[in-house]
Design brief:
The chain is mainly alpha-helical. It contains five helices and no strands.
Length: about 70
């Protein structure tokens, strides 16, 4: 994934997490993604698979199109 896009995605995940009032542990539980992986996603250190993107959208209870609207 391109660095600029990855940074925008990381910012979106962190923004939505805070908006929902979730800690990284909360989001980890809701999305079934390891807490360390979420930390790497939020700091743009990891490429993100479509499966993880879908898991995050479900955890935030929003559609993929709304989730990826950044």
């Amino acid at each position: 994934m391109d660095k600029v896009l990855l940074s925008k995605f990381a910012k979106r995940v962190k923004e939505l997490r805070k908006l929902k009032g979730y800690t990284q542990d909360d989001l980890s539980f809701r999305s079934n993604i390891a807490r360390s992986t979420l930390g790497n996603i939020e700091t743009a250190q990891n490429d993100v698979t479509f499966t993880k993107i879908n898991q995050l959208a479900k955890a935030f209870e929003i559609s993929l199109s709304d989730f990826l609207n950044f």
